[in-house]
## 1
Amino acid sequence: MLKDITLGQYYQTDSVIHRLDPRVKLVSTVVFIISLFIVDNFIGYLIAAAFLFAVIKLSKVPFSFMVRGMKSILILLLFAVVFNLFLTPGEVLVSFWKLKITKEGLRLAVMMAVRLMFLIIGSSVMTLTTTPNHLTDGLEKLLNPLKVFKVPVHEIAMMMSIALRFIPILLEETDKIMKAQIARGADFESGNLFKKAKSLVPLLVPLFISAFRRANDLATAMEARCYRGGEHRTKMKPLVYAKRDFMAYAFVFGYLVLCIVFGKILF
Amino acid sequence: MSIILDHVNYIYEEDTTMAYPALTDVNLVIPDGQFIGLIGHTGSGKSTLVQHLNGLLKPTSGAIYYNGADINDEGYDKKLLRSKVGLVFQYPEHQLFEVDVFSDVCFGPKNLGLDKKEIQLRAYAALKQVGIADEYFYQSPFDLSGGQKRRVAIAGVLAMKPEVLILDEPTAGLDPKGRDEILDQIAKLREETGMTVILVSHSMEDVAKYVDRLIVMNKSRVVFDDTPAAVFAHYEELEQIGLAAPQITYIMQALREKGLSVDTGITTVTEAKEAILKALRG
Amino acid sequence: MGIIKTKDLIFEYIRRDEEGNVEGITRAVDNVSLKIEQGDFVAVLGHNGSGKSTLAKHLNAILYPTEGTVWVDGKDTSDDDKLWEIRQTAGMVFQNPDNQIIGQVVEEDVGFGPENLGVPTKEIWERVEESLKAVGMYEFRKHSPNKLSGGQKQRVSIAGVIAMHPKCIVLDEPTAMLDPKGRKEVIRAVRALNDVERITVILITHYMEEIIYADKVFVMDNGTVAMEGTPREIFSQVEKLKELRLDVPQVTLLAHELKQGGLDLPDGILTKEELVDALMKLKK
């Protein structure tokens, strides 16, 4: 049922990658994604693959966990491949019935597939090695300069972290409400779309009432513990860069330069 | 007419690393008309067990028979089963959703596809059975007190005319008077209708004076299944699993050890009073 | 002057119908004057709707008096400048364990209060460690709160309050949603705080067995203090408690019944041992 959904797919183990500052991991993920769109030749992809492979090895997360994220985008991946394969004009390689596969199409399809796969695996490495909490902290710190433009960075980070804490609770509650209504003969599965939507009312009303109640309780509890926004606040776990973080930055930007040079300019 | 559980096992989150047994080899026969207390602390498997009785959960192995038919057979009408084996969950907040009390109670019978008149008749009868006065019928269920919400939730299940009524922790969060009122109401309801009632609770004291059979669960297994007096005789074992017999049992036991000839099977204050007075006055 | 004092405290709220029109005014707390001494363990009893939770919320400046005054450690709670000092002095634990834990890891939740107070990082860690040890939850410091039992969650909440170094801790029905095992855990932790750390405890509850160890008990009804005294004094008035929708422990009830049956027993028997001894004396 609903409890099967897991959010924040953190894989608990101890590795260099796990210990990196979340800011490093966020920046590196962005850099990696950018690099995928820069390179457009075989050597470039080889460099990206080597980089990804090295990071995965260092993270000590089993490869099967990385691939798990692929399932959810399988359809998207197929679409992208099929479209590019059949709809790109150019030199025809194979043709049957009304469909033609062109040389350019094949190239584009393979590139698109590899890009998407690397993109998903690359971001999985980040979410698998960083707790949601750490990610929020990192994001808060990275976005801090935006405060100048009156962006409520602290509040956004606090909201994210509260949401992460309450999503499992609300999912469990949804499960309980569903069971309570099924016990009264409710049917959430059969019927047409309109009927299905209507059948959700007995589920959503108690869920919303409970969510509002929880929000209210939580706000009171936070105030009782002297919460008054980000001002004057200290941190129990402040983010401090260590030597390894600077090394990681150097490594990542070195990789980017390599990608530009070999994946774009030289060949 | 009965419920039979035959070697029922249930593994929670099977196929994951979190898998653990929630029910282990449960065998029970629940004949018609019994008043049963199902006791155990959080995580003992008692809630998992009752969710098997109306088909919300399916056993990993073993079978459950309702009136002779296996409820997990292909084509068995689960919806009908749920109207016959009514289950009221712990928090009324999880089921109340309509604009007023009366419409909320109509939800169950409406799902059974009854005609409008029958639905209303049943809702009315059910609300009367749990002691909700007419003036509350058109109020929002969210404005009611904790005890009243609980009654409306019970009525919502009663309106389906179940043959078996299961109540999961019906007294949680109520104050002492509210607790006594709701338990008295349930006892009265049972007397009037003769239906089978299963009261799920973690408090021995609360249920001891009402039920005629106690089923005690611990770590996914049924550990005791007998009359309250017979179960409480094992008070030392009960303590080992973190459950206590009613205070009265301990007092009678202590008095007996000190040489006062009283019956140690006594579980209620009234019985204890008579026994002690009799023993002291000879 | 005690740690907490209220004088002629009245709290009223306005009831509105769906259109927002005023339907009436409810007086939830009605003329309550009480005083709580530093270091005491005080229990406030009352049925649901007796006004006990509303009273509790005044002690932490979550609610303000409609009339009358509340002082916490000598500070008037209606003085806005003192708000954060008051909330630090009188910490509060609420009923629903899920709705007051903010952190996704136990230790981070306990650190939340000190972070808000601007305590330096190193000291936050010290406070978190000592608070978790005080409630016996130190070994769970790296756990997710979602995986804990109800009793454990409430102990984490208590640790979160202690980490703010309050003089007084108000617990608003902390055990109402717990099973007997969880209830015992929480009460044991609270008693230890009072005994060992000398923190003033104000426990709001409707479970009778939880107040046996209190120094003083207030029983609320209809917004007023209906009874006041030691647990023994309170429990000797079985009939009055029943009138107030409360009950007494089975031992006390049995003693009361036996006394009415003509036995010469003392008033307010609280424990099994007391009853057995008294009965054995009668036998001789």
## 2
Amino acid sequence: MDYLLTEQQVMIRDLARKIAEEKIRPVAAHYDETEEFAWPIMKVLADSDLFGVYLPEQYGGLGGGILDMCLVTEELSKACGGIALGYAGTGLGALPILLHGSEEQKKKYLPDIAAGKKLAAFCITEAEAGSDAGSIKTTARKEGGKYILNGTKQWITNAGEAEIYTVIASTDKSKGVRGASAFVVEKGTKGMEFGKKEKKLGIRASATREVIFTDCEIPAANLISREGMGFVIALKTFDCSRPGVAAQAVGIAQGALDHALDYSRTRVQFDQPISAFQAVQHMLADMGTQVEAARALVYATARMVDSGAKSVAKESAMAKLFASEVAMKVATDAVQIFGGYGYMRDYPVEKYMRDAKITQIYEGTSQIQRNVIAASMIKEAIKK
Amino acid sequence: MHIIVCIKQVPNTTDVRIDPVTNTLIREGVESVINPFDAYAIEEAVRLRERCGGRVTVLTMGPPQAENALREAIGLGCDEAVLVSDRKFAGSDTWATSYTLASAIKKIGDFDVILCGKQASDGDTAQVGPGISTHLDIPQVTYVKKIEEISAEKAKVERMTEEGYDVVETPLPCLFTVVKELNTPRMPSLKGMLRAKSAKPLKWTAEDIEADPAALGLDGSPTRVIKIFTPEPRKGGEMLKGDTADVAAELAELLKDIAL
């Protein structure tokens, strides 16, 4: 399908595709197996300017938007959803600064992110604050010109590898979610440590660790926006980042489908390629249709975000919900088409199935997305 | 440091066809790419600039569409591009081609290093690089696999041989032809590609480079292509079987017979 991308977007997509094919695909299994962080690939992405596609030109970016970021994430995810997350997770960490940061903060942090010199990470989740993100226990206490952070963030993507962390912490417990604030914390700040690296089902090339703050002092200037805005910033960030997760899901789904289609044409049973069987054909047709529908919804949502639309919460949630469910279904069916071979780790499709699962969980589970969608629908109905 | 890279546009090697009548490559309808060996030269030129400062000029001789290869080279980090293009160059062999490129380089002016791929994937002659250095009367080192040291006056490089490598020290300016062991070419960058889109390569004709008309194109080319053909495939060897001592004796007899 032709999505009428601009000339620059086609250039971005094609370059991301080339890197995915030539640089990521040959090493995807290696990083999945070893769970190492793919720094050599991050370097390639940085040198190719891909980290800056969605950032404004005055901060060293290419002036594109969320759609540009989605195009890159999708292409990289076709080859490896885990390595793609080093890229997408940096976007998630950068968005609070881009959306709500001061001019000084943008000037200080965004150029290094655009150049790929520094990765970023976003820290909200805690052991007892997952879907219920409002119940975070990490605190930030103001003392003179400083904030002092205490608490432990859990399952932080890019933790340990990233240099720039945007952290949601409570500045006023009595106010609940209205007492949360957002901060920038740089790696190396005294009192900031990383927990053990988690062992995961999928996206194993991505680093997932705790970020532990123990009397961690940061300058008051690192507060993003003002006190009490933390939760608003988090929600606005998710509105812009969820199309990115959705794009990752589309990429994983497309990558799995490409493998399944190729395999079905070469695998011979009962004296013919299995692609000759209607049972397989209908599976492929459904997979192809679902992936295209997901892509169309993701691009439309990303364009809406880029248009500056005031509220995109519902659409972003829809894109993320639909694309991640498609990714899980398509990757599972891809394994089914491969049959016994698909279950073997020597073949590439089982990884897509493992990688797909996370897209239904992080940045809001599918259930939370449905809550957001329904709440928006009901709110719209009341307004009518 | 001013580095000049000479590149050639070649048909994509996955798609080579020969015209059975003229014995020349069919170029129509075939995707053109930068000669793969030249990609290592471009990468090394950009690395030299990153190492020593300066600028990189990419040069090619070819039809107007060779401009695409120059744009690609700019996307990979070259600063300026020069296309020498003229109907008078048609039919150039390696001697006339290297004369033409050398004339263009004289017009470009000062340079410290010229880099060329060791050979082009279509003609496979490996003669143009050395030809340029001859026309310019500068030293050349072929099959360079590493530029170990380089300063304004001299360079120390490793030159690949069949058994290993030579270490060669040479004064600059010098021409190097390079092998794939030299580096891993980087991916293009978006900013480079955007720059390439708006870049305007210089376009020079035979007149612009003040070349001797008699030394150009078919007239300036001593080479005549009589025939291009696919050699007969070698027949399989003869396998001797049996006891080792008997086989050895038999082999010795056979070798004697063919007077080795």
